[in-house]
Write a structure and sequence with these properties.
The structure holds two protein chains of two kinds.
Chain A (H helix, E strand, L loop, with lengths): L6 E5 L5 E6 L2 H14 L19 H14 L7 H4 L10 H9 L2 E6 L14 E3 L11 E11 L11 E11 L6 E11 L4 E6 L1 H9 L7 E7 L26 E7 L10
Antiparallel strand pairs in A: 1-2, 3-10, 4-9, 5-8, 5-10, 6-7, 6-9
Chain B lengths: L1 H19 L5 H4 L6 E3 L2 E3 L9 E3 L2 E3 L2 E3 L14 H12 L9 E14 L5 E16 L1
Antiparallel strand pairs in B: 1-5, 2-4, 3-6, 6-7
Classes of the chains: A alpha+beta, B alpha+beta.
Chain lengths: ~260, ~140
């Protein structure tokens, strides 16, 4: 009846539960805090109080897709037995293996993070806040997910393209150093999610928070590597695109086994 | 008459013994106070945590409750030590407690929640759901 936490309930010996006594607001808050502590959280997550959660955004949708399609009710069964045709995110065999091994899966929304001194190129810069990654978690893998729409404005851009992700290393004096991370081939007209392996940058950013200058996305025709284009030109949805198609990063982690004991 | 009276007395006496025999007395064996799994639902919805917990609405946590009496092995998954402890308890009830009714098998749950405004976490919590209870 929505009042389950308003009282202490006891078994009356006849397989019935009866109210023993009504708990106070203070006790109720204590119980809430105990459960939060059990979840490894010192308090409610920040900035969510009173706001409607934006489950429609791409990152929460992706994890909800994993939750519904691969975990199910009985957590003891192996992941592969649960897997139906997954929703719109097209989980690969590699994804399923990572999900199966993971104790924690985190999503990171892409930010348009401005860094002074970086010239605006035709490529796209993406930055991810990885400060909430629990220390001591072993990173199994990470992937960058980009949505490509088949609906493009300039039909002259039809053809095959390569999307390459680089880690931004240094930005002093307007100089930029890029380190190759991963690339994927695509064609205009493709509709759906593209994935790039970004395990190395995530590992680097977690270990060196000050060195997190994000990723640089470069798009060029498959046969002409010097002709760089804007990702939007081939239908890649950016951070200002539809909420459910915005780029995001997802990290798969194996727990260290040490129980998180956060002071509250 | 004397023989019948003796037989009747013996019968009453054995009937008393029968009633107090935990091995054979169904009233003790199937008592509702026997150690067993009890229903407990932790509702994230009732806690009004739905603004940050995306899934599930809550989960069947269960708990273990009841007495650990003989015969322990009937339906209580008792450990060998629990049987010994029950015997010692019968000898010295004031000094030695009965074995504890506690979980023997636990399983995990996954919780999907917002970490902040934009980042989401799907975390597996081990040993959160009681699958079976027993005497320890």
């Amino acid at each position: 009846d929505g009042q389950r936490l308003s009282g202490l309930y006891v078994d009356n010996g006849l397989d019935q539960t009866v109210v023993h006594r009504v708990v106070t607001q203070r006790e109720k808050r204590e119980v809430e805090h105990e459960i939060l502590n059990l979840l490894g959280l010192p308090d409610r997550p920040r900035n969510t109080g009173g706001k409607v959660p934006q489950v429609k955004r791409s990152a929460p949708k992706f994890l909800l897709d994993i939750y519904k399609n691969t975990l199910g009710e009985d957590e003891e069964k192996p992941v592969t037995l649960h897997t139906q045709t997954s929703g719109e995110f097209d989980l690969t065999g590699q994804d399923l293996r990572a999900i199966d091994q993971s104790d924690v899966i985190m999503s990171f929304a892409a930010h348009n993070h401005h860094v002074a001194g970086v010239r605006h190129e035709r490529g796209k810069r993406l930055w991810f806040d990885v400060s909430e990654v629990p220390p001591g978690e072993h990173i199994i893998g990470a992937e960058l997910r980009l949505y490509q729409s088949s609906d493009i404005k300039n039909h002259r851009n039809r053809g095959s393209y390569m999307i390459t992700a680089y880690r931004v290393l240094r930005t002093e004096d307007g100089e930029r150093e890029l380190q190759y991370v991963d690339s994927v081939n695509t064609t205009t007209g493709h509709e759906g999610w593209l994935t790039l392996n970004v395990s190395e940058p995530l590992q680097h950013w977690v270990n060196n928070p000050d060195g997190n200058r994000g990723l640089y996305l470069s798009v060029h025709p498959a046969d002409r590597s010097v002709h760089e284009m804007r990702p939007e030109d081939i239908g890649i949805v950016g951070s200002r695109g539809d909420a459910d198609r915005q780029p995001f990063m997802v990290g798969f982690f194996k727990s260290s086994g040490i129980r998180e004991a956060k002071v509250r | 008459q004397k023989r019948d009276a003796r037989r009747r007395k013996k019968s009453e006496s054995s009937s008393l013994d029968y009633r107090s025999n935990p091995y054979t007395d169904p009233a003790i064996q199937y008592s509702s106070r026997t150690c067993k799994i009890q229903t407990l639902y932790v509702s994230f919805k009732d806690l009004k945590w739905q603004d940050w917990i995306i899934a599930p609405d809550g989960y069947d946590a269960y708990y273990c409750s009841g007495e650990c009496n003989f015969p322990l092995n009937a339906h209580m998954n008792a450990t060998n030590h629990a049987i010994v402890q029950t015997l010692v308890h019968l000898v010295s009830p004031g000094k030695v407690p009965k074995p504890c009714c506690a979980p023997t098998k636990l399983s995990a749950i996954s919780v999907l929640y917002f970490l902040d405004e934009s980042n989401v976490i799907l975390k597996k919590y081990k040993n959160m759901v009681v699958k079976s209870c027993g005497c320890h």
